[in-house]
Amino acid sequence: MTKTWEDADPIETQEWLEAFASLVKNEGEERARFMIAKLLEHGGQAGAATTLLTPYCNSIPVDQQPAYPGDLELEHQIDALNRWNAIAMVLRAKKEAGGVGGHLSSYASIATLYEVGLNHFFHGASKGKPGDLIYFQGHSAEGNYARAFLEGRLSEKQLKNFRQEVEGEGLSSYPHPWLMPHFWQFATVSLGLGALQAIYQAHFLKYMENRKLIPANDRKVWIFSGDGEMDEPESIAALTLAAREKLDNVIYVVNCNLQRLDGLVRSNHKIVQELEGLFRGAGWNVIKVLWSSEWDSVFAKDKKGVLLKRLTESVDGDLQTAYVSGSVNRKEFLSADDEELRQLFSHLSEEDMLNLRRGAHDPVKIFAAYSAAVKHKGQPTVILAQGVKGYGLGTKNAEGRNIAHNQLEMTAEELKAFRERFKLPLTDKQLNDLSFQKLDEKSPAYAYLHAQRKKLTGYLPERLAISAPLTVPALSAFDSAALQGTGDRTMSTTMVLGRILNVLLKDPNIGSRVVPIFSDEVRTFGLEALFRQIGIYSSVGQLYTPEDKEQLMYYREAKDGQMLEEGITEAGCMASWIAAATSYSTHQVPMIPFFTYYSMFGFQRVGDLIWAACDMRARGFLIGGTAGRTTLEGEGLQHQDGSSLLSAAVVPSCRAYDPTFGYEMAVIIQHGLQEMYHEEKDVIYYIMAMNEKYVQPKMPKGVEEGIIKGMYLFQEGGKAKLKVQLFGSGAILREVIAAAELLAKDFSVSADIWSVTSFSELRREGTEIERAKMLMPEKKAPQSYLEKCLAKHEGPIIAATDYVRAYADLIRPLLSRSYTVLGTDGYGRSDTREKLRGFFEVNRYYIAVAALHALAKEGAIPASQVTAAIKKYNIDPKKPNPVTV
Could you give the CA distance from residue 841 to residue 823 in angstroms, rounded to a whole number? Predict the structure, then answer.
């Protein structure tokens, strides 16, 4: 095999080069670039090796740059004041508020990328017309606040209270819509999540258009990310989706300052080239903005490409050192003892050498890239903009240095140098006092600032949440689907979910708003009827005849399909769910998403995204399928969920439920619809669903309130003197019911049975009352719902769930009597439900023994009766503890 660096046929090579030179000469560079692109495309199709990298220079030639439409002098004034106010905000917070922190370098690096967009590209929302969706980089929030202050949207008091929110009129550290619901749209500071959300947001935008729920539009989704952030798997997880779906409404801007938090991203390599290969290989249009206009004259002299060769061969560590080393060292590095290279820079003074900036700080180059990106069709676009971390802060301080991210202070001399560099009209006193500066309302810069935003139809960032309550079906709509039970027929709650979805999809008011979402395994959940009923969304429809076309429930894809089946990606599905769950704000069209997934792969896998969703005031349903640690037969540890309800309990706006019966699920879903879509409360519902089939009973009268509050009396015990209270939920309630029968038959113990649909909701209400008791000790506090339920029911309490003990333990502080909890702590096993419940000690026999033990502890029965029960039910006292095996 011929090595790639050997030329097997120099004559043929020369002929190709001469032909290409003739093409450039006679038809121009644009035609030549087109032909190269076509050759690369053809080579890839033919299986030949092709390169994904272009030279280390700007993608857009100087002669193809559009004329800059703005006033660069006025934009510089605005940019300079933004930079100053951002710095003043951070330094004041550190000085006056006990060091609450902030970042100096992140916004300094990305400022020009924002300013060009805000002056010329990013459309705001106005008169019901939604604008562009901008996923601002989380760590550069100071710059967004500084600009909003110049625009008059934030007050000086708010800037003074940066990162000081507890007493009101403060600003959150990062983009948090929960804390600033009229300002921030997207929670992006958990690195990587912004990019994933944004791409699926663009995907959902097309979904809404193709289903004709919103008119077709030219809205863009802009993503701003750092090159260090690209190491997060979520940052690149959806690249192929964007290319496959031809999402030309996505523009991904990666601020390549070559540094992560502690140092260089790829010190011994080149991060820009790596990212170019990654994006281009995924099918993206790639635009590189590496060098500023000051380099144009140098590159124009480089007829032989020696400078390009030098820049391409230099690793990022070299580029960083050259930047911070001063003009002489910079020229020495670039010349590299090469006379041809030295001649390229011979016309530049030392000051000129210092002014050789990187492209991310040149509005002219950025404008050219943004213009090309918004016009590009058929592909998503990424802009790789090379900048400097801490740009403008001074190389002696932080600019371009490894310490840039952690630089939180500036000396008086450094502040003066900053003032001179950006020509800021600040007195020494204003400088030392860190005074915030506004534009004179009569100044040209002030007029320009607002005129540009007026052209772009509104200010950003801004979050709109227009009231648009939906008419949701009454509970009676689910009568035949869930409330009347199933007679003698067995059915899982997942199957009942399918019936409930069927009712909702046919509802004339909200049917079109329902968005069923699956990562995969719709058939596993028994919901494949949805394939034919509503179709799977595909931007191109169905280009093939499915092999199961003759089947009743064949795999049907459609351009107006309602279901989103995103493939095996819980993170991608969560991102789609977030887009739908926040659609009431981003599109002013409330959507009702149901994301059904293996519960084990929910909170434990994408918990960060769930927190982000709630931060963004999401509204929707998460369905934890095949819930619990013992309900899913045979699958074993990896699939057994024993903790997601505990995780859900700590999310403030999450209402988490574990229904056993179909009517419970129907009541919860109907209440969720009412709360989220009619009352428009910013909460989400997490509902467990199981694949275990059993007879679904008819709903008893008057239990609706209890189901929502967290518990209700399912069955009252007999008249025996010995009393216990049995709590059960989800998969284990039926074991609790069976345990009550054992206790009555074998030991004359009467058990009241409580269906506990939500330990977390009981705790939420109970702790609120306990807080009131503590803070208002002289005022009579109301009883908690839990106390009211138990007021007339005697005996110790035994709770059993299919989750870790800590879940049922949530209510322990609210109880004043004996409380025993059984749960599924430990690692799981592959086996049958019956054996798994025995292994985890949550079956009917262990529940009965736990009840007797509780009575024995109270002296109501002798311990010998507990021993008798252990023998009777063939329980091995020496069995290993499931927690430790």
Answer: 7
Residue type, 153: R
Which segments within 337-480 are labelled E, that is strand? 381-386
CA distance 410 to 412: 7
The strand pairing partners of 285, in sequence order, are 381
Q: Average pLDDT of 697-711? A: 98
754 beta partners: 713, 727
pTM for this entry: 0.93
- In angstroms, the CA 430 to CA 410 distance is 15
DSSP code string of 135-160:
E--GGGHHHHHHHHHHTTSS-HHHHH
Rounded-to-integer distance, Cα 67 and Cα 65, Å: 6
Strand partners, 625: 598
In sequence order, the 6+-apart residues with CB closer than 8 A to the CB of 689 are 492, 493, 494, 497, 525, 596, 623, 624, 625, 626, 627, 665
Residue 622's DSSP bridge partners are 595, 686
813 upstream amide cis, omega within 30 of 0: no
pLDDT tens for each residue of 363-378:
999 999 999 999 999 9
Strand extents, DSSP E, 272-408: 285-289, 381-386
Give the integer Cα–Cα distance in Å for 107 and 144.
9
With residue 834 as reference, give the H or E element that holds it: helix 833-839
Quick check: helix, strand or coil at residue 261? coil
Q: How far, in Å, CA of 495 to CA of 506, rounded? A: 17
The pLDDT tens digits of the residues spanning 316-328 come to: 999 998 888 876 6
Q: Are 715 and 752 in contact (CB under 8 A)?
A: yes
For tokens 């007999």, the residue is 718
How does strand 250-256 pair with strand 285-289? unpaired
CA distance 644 to 624: 9
C-alpha span between 94 and 116 (Å, rounded): 30
Region of 658 (left: φ > 0; alpha: ψ -120 to 50; beta: rest) is: beta
Pairing of strands 749-756, 711-715: antiparallel
Query: Is residue 215 within 8 Å of 633, Cβ to Cβ?
Result: no
Closest CA to 230 of 249, 257, 205: 257
Contacts of 312 (CB under 8 A, 6+ apart): 55, 56, 270, 273
- How many helices and strands (H and E) does the chain possess? 35, 20
185-216 tens-digit pLDDT: 999 999 999 999 999 999 999 999 999 999 99
Q: Which residue has the tokens 């899913």?
A: 632
Q: What is the mean pLDDT of residues 755-773?
A: 96
Whether the CB-CB separation of 396 and 266 falls below 8 Å is answered with no
Burial 73-89 (b: 16+ CB within 10 A, else e): ebbbbbbbbbbbbbbbb
Of 689, 659, 687, nearest to 672 by C-alpha is 687
Listing from the earlier edge strand, what are the strands of the sheet with 749-756?
711-715, 749-756, 722-728, 797-800, 819-822
